[in-house]
């Protein structure tokens, strides 16, 4: 008789006793090992291996970043971060006469490498314009002068539609009132039942264009959206997550929000892929709602078997971490939606 069959054959009081003993023992171990950082590390090294993937993904991400730094092509994350830092220096009050000396040289080299590699995109244009304004604004030091000479040999002057910091007064007026915005927020509900109607890639691209405007730490935008459009593909991906049993075959489209730990040289920033990915995902869901498409955010569990399954389907590198899945489609008008009572501002605000 297998252990599974034996366990099922046990009387309910015995099952309850075994479960209670196991839970109490686990809690006692947690109480003991949570008493210090060292013991916590021992716990997740010897007793629980639940963080193994995260640990290795962080290290591989750091390695991937270092390899990109040694290469001669485009290093998207490094250049985006440092150009954003230059922008912040340019808008400071008061602006310092010299700043960014410790990273301006590597920033120009990164820009120049991408230019020589033939990279032509919005990021290069933005970097070119900000570097131009930076060198026009700062004073002279040996390191700044050296970087300026290197930049001058590769810059692409273009005075039309420059991508540089601008005053707040140039932003368009907001045409949306608070009440109108609240209507959109109330319409955006977690929808699990959809019409048998295809979702066009054009609408998804339109929504992603809006999601790309979400805030991102140092403007790295360390995420991508893996779109599985079509019921068969969507179901295959949705089955990898927990909590989709009973409705995954109904989903016309699923989007995996995936963060890349290879955008960071230090472990201290490992959490940013989840923050930035979630900010973009929320903006994406609101954009989808405005285009007539409903959505449902699906929790992604850190379970090794499921991680491998999804990585194989989507072709993810080990340092790429799934933030969440999103179901997308045209809502079935007769489909039920959970009421999901929300906390009030009095529950959520703590003034200090």
Automatic annotation (TrEMBL):
It comes from Stutzerimonas xanthomarina DSM 18231. PANTHER family: NAD(P)H NITROREDUCTASE YDGI-RELATED, NADH DEHYDROGENASE_NAD(P)H NITROREDUCTASE XCC3605-RELATED. Belongs to the nitroreductase family. Keywords: Oxidoreductase. Residues 186-238, 242-330 form the Nitroreductase domain. InterPro entries: Nitroreductase (IPR029479), Nitroreductase-like (IPR000415). This is Nitroreductase. The keyword Oxidoreductase applies. One of its GO terms (molecular function) is oxidoreductase activity.
């Amino acid at each position: 008789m297998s252990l599974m069959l034996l366990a099922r054959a046990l009387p309910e009081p015995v099952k309850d006793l075994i479960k209670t003993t196991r839970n109490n023992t686990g809690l006692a171990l947690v109480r003991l090992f949570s008493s210090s950082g060292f013991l916590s590390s021992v716990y997740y090294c010897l007793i629980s291996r639940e963080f193994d993937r995260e640990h290795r993904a962080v290290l591989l991400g750091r390695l991937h970043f270092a390899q990109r730094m040694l290469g001669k092509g485009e290093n998207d994350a490094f250049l985006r971060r440092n150009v954003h830092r230059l922008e912040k220096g340019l808008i400071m009050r008061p602006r310092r006469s010299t700043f960014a000396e410790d990273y301006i040289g590597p920033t120009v080299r990164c820009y120049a490498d991408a230019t020589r590699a033939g990279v032509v995109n919005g990021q290069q244009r933005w970097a070119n314009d900000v570097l131009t304004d930076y060198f026009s604004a700062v004073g002279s030091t040996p390191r700044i002068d050296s970087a300026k000479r290197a930049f001058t040999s590769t810059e692409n002057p273009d005075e039309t539609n420059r991508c540089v910091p601008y005053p707040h007064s140039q932003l368009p007026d907001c045409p949306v009132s608070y009440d109108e915005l609240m209507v959109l927020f109330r319409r955006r509900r977690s929808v699990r039942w959809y019409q048998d109607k295809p979702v066009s890639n054009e609408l998804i691209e339109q929504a992603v264009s809006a999601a790309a405007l979400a805030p991102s730490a140092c403007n790295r935008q360390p995420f991508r959206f893996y779109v599985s459009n079509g019921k068969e593909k969507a179901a295959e991906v949705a089955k990898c997550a927990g909590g989709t049993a009973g409705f995954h075959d109904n989903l016309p489209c699923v989007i995996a929000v995936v963060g890349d730990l290879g955008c960071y040289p230090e472990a201290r920033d490992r959490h940013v892929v989840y923050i930035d990915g979630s900010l973009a995902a929320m903006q994406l869901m609101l954009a989808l709602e405005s285009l007539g498409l409903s959505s449902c955010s699906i929790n992604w569990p850190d379970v090794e078997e499921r991680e491998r399954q999804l990585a194989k389907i989507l072709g993810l590198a080990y340092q790429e971490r799934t933030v969440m899945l999103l179901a997308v489609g045209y809502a079935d008008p007769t489909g039920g939606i959970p009421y999901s009572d929300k906390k009030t501002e009095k529950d959520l605000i703590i003034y200090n």
